[in-house]
């Protein structure tokens, strides 16, 4: 059989380009180093696009240097970041931007390079890129984004506040940095409350006070003893939780499927 | 409140002195057999100076030891009932602790739970205290405290009290998001036998009123933008399965009619839990028909999201679901000449009818096939589960190698070894309740986790 270089074959190679092929065209032996912020990452995209180079790795300053390639420092610049941000919405789609944001908050090791490859593909294909569900890069981005969105939603469900002197405090221990994705939910829900959500694994706290929002790094959070009144509400909730189960239908496996055990640590009903 | 007379005084005093913890224990215990705990159907953002919001998709906040979702604070306002329904734990003649919440107690408890992110809102029901109108008034008081004093914008599901004045029901509906009336049992005969104080009419009549209420309110809304909405998340109902002899065919037809005629948002099924001994009731050692309940929910999903008609799923000759396989598989095997279907060409509606393909998978397929021809590897990459679907689809005109092409062998492939042996035996020998013989997947899902 003859597999000549007919037109059909070249078309297939040209579209949709697999990451390896892109790499062959643009790949350079350079690693990008950026400040770890979302804007910084967008600047990496900017640099890669205008220099027509595909870095072999992208690191943030605080990550250990694991590459032998020469590192190129990418300065964070609001204007370029803004340009890239707008171009994603305009040239690809808002859905793509949502995926990229969620991916950025994941703890996946090579998330930066994954996002870059996805965006390059997106600029080429346009809004349909999010439909290419069997494409390796698109699949990786969609899957990572889904994991993060799911974890964020789990925290919206299972996070528990306790009152300390008029301030509602919750502690979470997420795998991914989901706090920036979920606080808006609570601000909308409790506009007149004062609350604090502390992410123990990423050492960050979100504080909402008199309508002011702030997300700050926080090394350690020391909480006072619960008040008697608060203890009472904990007791009431635990009692409700235990009473509402129907003995004849006990199904621990189902409960664990619906509510993975790692969330139980900070839930009032299991304390 | 007029002072209660005679021997009632003692129980009244006891209830007054009871603390909130005791009341909560009694009144949540009495409410737990109500299945519905969804907080879905209405989108409402927060607002300055108020508390709460609601999401159309609903949010679960915990799962109890039976694996069911806890979304709402599910309690009765009171369990001191004047009725004597034989299947009900709260019947007058039953010897259980009685309690009644003060409206302010319950309102405060609910708001405090909500602030701590324990719950999405309230599911309020009640036994009939004194008379239906009085009970309804008490419930209105609780809801108006929550809505007007605490300015709560979250979710409220309320049980309509059959027999209460129409005006009171309307007032209740304007404060709630969803209203429900339990059908209790699937037929009038069973109702007569087990709930002599209720009749089909006394339940369907208020149900019809809620439907009209929703319609009238809809036309009102056109005229005045600020008309308060009457049960914006619609109404639902619940029936007990396994306490009376109705077939699955009867039940599914009833549900289909309720969805169509009364525009219900949900029908819930509850496997009968033998908590009481009664002359007309199944014996106390009867196990709840959890797997049957699971099959009914699956069929219910087929009616609502997969565009199936009740008559397609069952008929009078085969009035019950095959407990070994799900209703969609069952349908597909009985209509095997419609299969296999080509993934790249079949219309959306046809793909929806393929066993093992859910709404999400079908949406993914339709999206992805615009970008290129799909084969089985693509499907797997996209996360489409082929376990059941592989028997009913082709990609580029081909099935997976070695896939059988007759319903007999497909059934064999779908079932585990043991279930297959059982399927060979005459049906009447299979115990409906022997869980070890069904597929693992069904067992895990079996208990209304998807509600």
Assess the beta-strand content of chain B as a share of residues: 5-15%
Give the H and E element order of chain A.
Answer: HHEHEEHHHHEEHEEEHH
Helical residue percent band of chain B? 25-40%
The CATH superfamily of the largest domain in chain B is known as Aldolase class I
Strand order of the largest sheet of chain A: 4-5-6-7-8
- How is the biggest beta sheet of chain B arranged? 6 strands, parallel
Please identify, by name, the CATH architecture of the largest domain in chain B.
Answer: Alpha-Beta Barrel
Shape type of chain B: globular
What does this entry look like structurally?
- The complex is a heterodimer of chains A (271) and B (451).
- Chain A is of the alpha/beta class.
- Chain A has two domains: 139 residues, no CATH class; 112 residues, no CATH class.
- Chain A is 48% helix and 14% strand.
- Chain A is built from ten helices and eight strands.
- In chain A, the strands form two sheets. Chain A has a five-stranded mixed beta sheet, with helices on one face. Chain A has a three-stranded parallel beta sheet with strand order 2-1-3, with helices on one face.
- In chain A, helix 3 packs across helix 6 and helix 5 runs antiparallel to helix 6.
- The radius of gyration of chain A is 23 Å and the shape is elongated.
- Chain B starts with 7 loop residues before the first helix and ends in a 6-residue tail after the last helix.
- By secondary structure, chain B is α/β, with parallel strands linked by helices.
- Chain B is globular and about 70 Å long.
- Chain B has a six-stranded parallel beta sheet.
- Chain B has two domains: 268 residues, Aldolase class I (TIM Barrel), CATH 3.20.20.70; 114 residues, no CATH class.
């Amino acid at each position: 059989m003859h597999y000549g270089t007919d037109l059909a074959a070249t078309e297939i190679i040209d579209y949709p380009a697999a990451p390896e092929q892109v790499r062959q065209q643009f790949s350079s032996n350079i690693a990008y180093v950026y400040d770890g912020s979302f804007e910084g990452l967008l600047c990496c995209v900017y640099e890669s696009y205008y220099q027509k180079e595909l870095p072999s790795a992208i690191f943030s300053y605080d990550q250990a240097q694991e590459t032998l390639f020469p590192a190129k420092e990418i300065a964070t610049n609001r204007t370029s970041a803004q340009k890239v941000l707008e171009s994603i919405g305009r040239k690809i789609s808002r859905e793509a931007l949502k995926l990229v944001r969620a991916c950025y908050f994941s703890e996946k090791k090579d998330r930066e390079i994954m996002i870059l490859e996805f965006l390059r593909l997106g600029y080429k294909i346009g809004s349909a890129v999010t439909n290419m569900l069997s494409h390796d890069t698109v699949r990786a981005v969609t899957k990572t984004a889904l994991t993060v969105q799911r974890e964020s939603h789990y925290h919206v469900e299972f996070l528990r506040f306790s009152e300390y002197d008029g301030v509602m405090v919750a502690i979470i221990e997420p795998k991914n940095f989901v706090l920036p994705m979920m606080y808006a939910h609570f601000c909308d829900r409790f506009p007149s409350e004062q609350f604090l959500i502390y992410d123990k694994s990423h050492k960050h706290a979100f504080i909402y006070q008199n309508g002011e929002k702030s997300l700050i790094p926080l090394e350690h959070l020391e909480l006072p003893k619960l008040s008697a009144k608060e203890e009472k509400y904990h007791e009431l909730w635990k009692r409700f939780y235990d009473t509402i189960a129907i003995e004849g239908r006990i199904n621990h496996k189902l409960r664990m499927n619906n509510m993975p055990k790692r969330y139980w640590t900070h839930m009032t009903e299991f304390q | 409140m007029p002072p209660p007379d005679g021997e009632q005084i003692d129980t009244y005093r006891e209830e007054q002195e009871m603390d909130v913890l005791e009341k909560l224990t009694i009144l949540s215990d009495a409410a737990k057999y109500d299945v519905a705990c969804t907080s879905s159907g209405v989108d409402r953002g927060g607002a300055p100076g108020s508390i709460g919001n609601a999401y159309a998709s609903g949010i679960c906040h915990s799962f109890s030891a039976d694996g069911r979702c806890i979304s709402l604070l599910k309690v009765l306002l009171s369990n001191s009932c004047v009725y004597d329904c034989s299947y009900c734990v709260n019947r007058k003649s039953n010897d259980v602790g009685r309690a009644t919440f003060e409206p302010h107690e319950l309102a405060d408890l609910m708001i405090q739970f909500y602030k701590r992110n324990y719950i999405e809102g309230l599911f309020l029901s009640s036994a009939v205290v004194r008379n239906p109108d009085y009970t309804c008034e008490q419930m209105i008081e609780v809801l108006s405290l929550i809505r007007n004093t605490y300015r709560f914008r979250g979710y409220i599901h309320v049980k309509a009290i059959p027999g209460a004045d129409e005006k009171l029901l309307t007032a209740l509906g304007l404060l709630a998001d969803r209203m429900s009336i339990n059908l209790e049992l699937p037929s009038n005969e069973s109702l007569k036998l087990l709930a002599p104080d209720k009749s089909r009419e006394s339940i369907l009549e208020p149900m019809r009123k809620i439907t009209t209420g929703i319609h009238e309110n809809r036309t009102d809304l056109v005229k005045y933008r600020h008309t308060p909405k009457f049960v914006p998340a619609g109404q639902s109902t619940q029936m007990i399965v396994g306490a009376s002899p109705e077939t699955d065919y009867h039940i599914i037809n009833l549900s289909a009619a309720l969805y169509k005629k009364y525009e219900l948002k949900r029908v819930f099924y509850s496997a009968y839990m033998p908590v009481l001994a009664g002359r007309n009731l199944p014996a106390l050692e009867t196990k709840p028909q959890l797997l049957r309940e699971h099959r009914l929910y699956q069929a219910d999903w087929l009616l609502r999201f997969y565009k199936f008609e009740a008559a397609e799923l069952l008929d009078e000759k085969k009035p019950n679901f095959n407990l070994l396989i799900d209703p969609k598989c069952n349908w597909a095997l009985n209509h095997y000449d419609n299969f296999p279907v080509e993934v790249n060409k079949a219309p959306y509606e046809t793909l929806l009818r393929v066993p093992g393909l859910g709404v999400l998978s079908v949406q993914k397929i339709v999206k992805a096939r615009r970008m290129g021809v799909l084969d089985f590897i693509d499907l797997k990459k996209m996360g489409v589960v082929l376990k059941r679907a592989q028997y009913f689809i082709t990609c580029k005109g081909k099935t997976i190698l070695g896939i059988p092409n007759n319903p007999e062998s497909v059934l064999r492939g779908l079932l585990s070894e043991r279930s297959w042996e059982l399927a060979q035996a005459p049906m009447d020998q299979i115990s409906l309740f022997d869980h070890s013989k069904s597929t693992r997947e069904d067992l895990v899902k079996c208990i209304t986790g998807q509600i």
